[in-house]
Amino acid sequence: MKRLLTAALLMATMVSVFAQDLAPPQQVKDLSWMVGTWSGTGKISFGGHEVEITSTMTISFDGQFLKAVSADKSEGSTLTKTTMTGWEPAKSQYISYTFTNMAPTARIALRMALPLWLLRLSITTTSPGRNVGTRNCSM
Question: 11 phi and psi, to 5 degrees?
Fold first, then answer.
């Protein structure tokens, strides 16, 4: 019994020492102004076709990440997206992956370097097995 108790205490100590802090890093906490529910309407165009779109997005913290869950409705269809944004300390940049109900793999991978107010984004949009375009944006 004494051995079992000693082993249990040793295991509990090891777990607490090696447990990863799941709180978001400061760089992710700095995005807290985005937390909440956002919605809007607008038009998008692709392939010469313009479409009215209604979007709703709910942003929250999820462990070490900022999580955005959104729905874009247009012409009877709904595109749902889940985006997880984190911080890569080795590269001093944010990293985001977006998954949709229209593809089995991440459709958008986004890396953002600091400073935020001079941010230059490189957004790569992909379909299963092929790259369909890259857009660069400035904020």
Answer: -65, -45
* Helix (H) / strand (E) containing 33: none
Put the strands of the sheet holding 77-88 in their side by side order: 36-46, 49-62, 65-74, 77-88, 93-100, 108-113, 120-127, 130-138
Report domain extents, the chain: 21-138
Q: Which percentage of the chain shows pLDDT scores above 90? A: 28
H or E, element range at 37:
strand 36-46
At 139 the pLDDT is 33
At residue 82 the predicted structure's pLDDT band, cuts being 50, 70 and 90, is very high
Nearest residue to 53 via CA among 73, 37, 39, 80: 73
